[in-house]
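Practice problem: predict the structure.
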Amino acid sequence: MSGVTALVLAGSRGSADPLALAEGVSHKALISIAGVPMLARVLRALLKARESGHVGRIAISIERADILEELARYGADFTATPEISVLAAKSSPAASTAAAVDALGTPLLMTTADHALLQSEWIVHFLQAMPGNMDVGGAIALEDVVRRATPETRRTFLRFSDGAFSGCNLFYLRTPKAQKLAEFWQQLESERKNPLQLLKRLGFTFAARYALGTLSRQDALNRLREMTGAGGALIEMPFGECAVDVDKSQDLELVRRILEKREGIQA
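Answer:
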């Protein structure tokens, strides 16, 4: 098994990320948790999954071409790891994803640099659970699974008629049709400040059904296929911590506590 190419989205949203400023680093991906930058933790998980043959090449999408040298200065030296390369990040995660699909092709495993708790076991489980007849897949964790694992977490749950879940920052773009989904994502990003236009694109009936709690997960996937031509699957993860990334200071504190317990060191 040669392994799927992996992409780590590490681009910065704006020049003054509040978490990076608070932690005294130039980039959110460099925030240290238990002495290891978040990006380095993600890379280590991917490299471990590579040892089992599930992951191949690894690309980091970021504005900084010198990011590997920067990680080395933090004691995480990947400069002599030829499997890791750097791509120039674009203006948004969606644009960076579309550019990466152009550059790297499919299939493509995608995660984010703030997924500091990521473990190789999660990656392997996700890839093995991905249906072979779908164009794109996304990892999710059901609300009860997340709350059992991290009862103190503050997650945003998407609520459908067949259960609420949180995304897990793991995506599998299996076929070239996934590029259509990336392009659609870009359109949604461009309209996020125009709710009326966004609802018009998604469909008022679709939005109303979601608001009323009558929309199922499969209904949403079917609508996505109608709009993009890409068939999608939601992969339920049995790991509640998989839904925890670092978006705000409370997340960072939680991740540090989890890693202190997991690794038995002071975070």
